[in-house]
């Protein structure tokens, strides 16, 4: 049977492409096999990657990339509703990788939706040790002070006087929450200072009673207080076990839930490149339809090129293996360009990056793009 010349040419073409792919694969494997992607600390300019399977994704809001935690896994997407997203503070995340425990504390609070504006004044702050002494009865002064500030006895009995400041304030318990962090290749335990708010059930009921009254009189406040407290006096079984409620704040098992989300993001984030791996950044402007867009071309050092090449190749290989095993995985990977603690853009790549430079495209804010290039060029090589 004769084979048409066009088929012969197509077969030769396919064979040639296959040969090129095989040669490139062999070259890449040989070039990268002895190169180790060692962990590094972040600095002012970073390219970080997030494991796409750990429940995080990059969204775009107000023309700026943001890293968020979302139920149902990670991925690329636009911020359409924001209803189930928990934004992750990039600056504190980067500082945590440098060993900053204060930054870790802020990261833990924000990822656990602890709002600093809802916390009381510092005079209502308690350390765990102070609270433990008050609850155990080892320190009478602490016990008296605690009951005054939470405005209820530890057994749930109401106080005989009314202190609106205490009713509306509650107390804040400060804890040192342990989280493991990979700092330049060394696994360390950092202790983030975390503040948690406590209000007694009695105080919450009083707040609800007074919520719709702009300027309540003393008589009105007294009447509402009696309405809340008399049932507690007459029916002891209705009282809150305040000692047990507060005891949960000094139980170290509670650290696990506080640390869970921060631990996942810290284990998922990988600093691929910092400013020492960048030679320069260049800004380009072009027209896309009726609009202007900006591009940032980043040129890497040889070390930077090898690091990004190694990561991109390994990531895409892992994605391929995951899909072959029936796991949910994409055909692309995503990184975030972070400058001075701000996520500037989150480019998506579908092939390995083996060149000395790469380009971040489709930036819609020219001012952000220009400031980023200026900052990158100021910090590189230091």
Can you give a write-up of this model?
The chain has two domains: 177 residues, Gyrase A, domain 2; 162 residues, no CATH class. The chain contains twelve helices and 15 strands. The strands form four sheets. Strands 1, 9, 12, 13 and 14 form a five-stranded antiparallel β-sheet that branches. Strands 4-2-3-5 form a four-stranded mixed β-sheet, with no helix packed on it. The chain has a three-stranded mixed β-sheet with strand order 6-7-8. Helix 3 crosses helix 10. The longest helix has 28 residues.
Keywords:
382 residues; Gyrase A, domain 2; 4-stranded mixed beta sheet; 41% helix; elongated
Q: In percent, how much strand structure appears in the residues? A: 25-35%
Determine the fraction of residues in helical runs and give it as a percent range: 40-55%
Give the second-level CATH assignment, the architecture of the largest domain: 2-Layer Sandwich
What is the ordering of alpha helices and beta strands?
A: HEEEEEHHEHHHEEHHHHEEEHEEEEH
Strand count, sense and closure of the main sheet?
A: 5 strands, antiparallel
Gyration radius over CA:
29 Å
The total count of strands amounts to 15
The chain-level mean pLDDT equals 87
Stretches where pLDDT is under 50 for at least 5 consecutive residues are: 73-83
Structural class: alpha+beta
The fold-level CATH name of the largest domain is Gyrase A, domain 2
CATH class of the largest domain: Alpha Beta
Annotation field: number of helices: 12
């Amino acid at each position: 049977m004769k084979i048409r010349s066009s088929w012969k040419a197509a077969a030769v073409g396919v064979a040639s492409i296959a040969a090129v792919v095989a040669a490139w694969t062999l070259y890449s494997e040989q070039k990268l096999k002895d190169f180790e992607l060692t962990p590094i600390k972040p600095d002012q300019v970073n390219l970080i990657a997030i494991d796409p399977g750990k429940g995080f994704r990059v969204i775009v809001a107000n023309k700026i990339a943001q890293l968020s935690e979302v139920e149902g896994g990670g991925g690329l997407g636009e911020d359409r509703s924001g209803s189930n997203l928990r934004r992750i503070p990039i600056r504190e995340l980067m500082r945590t990788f440098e060993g900053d425990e204060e930054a870790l504390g802020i990261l833990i609070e924000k990822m656990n939706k602890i709002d600093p504006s809802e916390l009381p004044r510092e005079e209502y702050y308690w350390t765990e040790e102070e609270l433990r002494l008050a609850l155990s009865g080892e320190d009478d002064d602490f016990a008296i002070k605690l009951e005054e500030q939470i405005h209820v006895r530890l057994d749930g009995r109401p106080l005989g006087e009314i202190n609106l400041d205490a009713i509306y304030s509650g107390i804040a318990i400060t804890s040192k929450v342990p989280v493991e962090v990979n700092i330049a290749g060394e696994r360390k335990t950092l202790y983030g200072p975390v503040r948690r708010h406590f209000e007694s059930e009695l105080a919450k009921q009083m707040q609800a009673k007074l919520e719709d009254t702009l300027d309540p009189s003393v008589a009105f406040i007294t009447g509402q207080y009696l309405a809340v407290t008399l049932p507690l006096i007459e029916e002891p079984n209705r009282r809150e076990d305040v000692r047990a409620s507060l005891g949960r704040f000094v139980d170290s098992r509670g650290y696990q839930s506080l640390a869970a989300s921060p631990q996942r993001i810290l284990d998922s984030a990988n600093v691929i490149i910092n400013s020492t791996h960048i030679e320069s950044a260049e800004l380009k402007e072009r027209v896309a339809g009726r609009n202007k867009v900006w591009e940032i071309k980043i040129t890497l050092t040889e070390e930077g090129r090898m690091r990004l090449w190694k990561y991109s190749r390994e990531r895409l290989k892992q994605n391929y293996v995951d899909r072959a095993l029936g796991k949910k995985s994409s055909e692309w990977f995503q990184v975030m360009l972070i400058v001075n603690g701000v996520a500037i853009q989150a480019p998506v790549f579908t092939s390995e990056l083996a060149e000395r430079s790469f380009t971040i495209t489709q930036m819609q804010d020219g001012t952000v793009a220009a400031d980023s290039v200026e900052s990158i060029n100021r910090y590189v090589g230091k």
